[in-house]
Backbone:
């Protein structure tokens, strides 16, 4: 994931995040584990329709859902329902996002958000 600086915030910096992950569940309830290059757990996210929890660096943070959690982690909201559709090769529309599934059969998904700012790019490589 790469997020450009927010032009409305002169203090914002570009952010990049890359990790292996294991995803279980769906947009309503599930878990997502992120791993370091050496295979240890870097972060764990668990969510239900009512809340989301992030555990990383020995600290646990509670959120009122996945949207506030993704903003906290990445600096921008990720369209969770659309993301789960994209993982199935389905091109579900998400406001401001453009998904490219032309390489889905090769295990690659690319999505880009141009509006609203900040711009963001999400690249996923699927490993069956």
Residues:
């Amino acid at each position: 994931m790469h997020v450009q600086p927010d032009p409305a915030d002169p203090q914002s910096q570009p952010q990049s995040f890359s990790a292996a992950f294991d995803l279980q569940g769906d947009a309503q309830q599930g878990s997502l584990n992120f791993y370091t290059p050496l295979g240890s757990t870097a972060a764990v996210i668990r969510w239900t329709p009512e809340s989301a929890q992030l555990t990383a660096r020995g600290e646990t943070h509670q959120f009122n859902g996945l949207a506030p959690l993704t903003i906290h982690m990445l600096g921008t909201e990720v369209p969770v329902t659309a993301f789960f559709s994209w993982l199935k090769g389905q091109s579900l529309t998400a406001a401001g996002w453009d998904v490219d599934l032309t390489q889905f059969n090769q295990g690659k998904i690319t999505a880009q958000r141009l509006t609203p700012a900040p711009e963001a790019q999400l690249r996923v490589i699927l490993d069956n």
In short: The first strand starts at residue 2 and ends at 3. The CA atoms of residues 51 and 65 lie 4 Å apart. The helical segments are 66-74, 80-87. Strands lie at 2-3, 15-16, 20-25, 30-35, 41-47, 52-56, 59-63, 97-100, 108-113, 120-125.
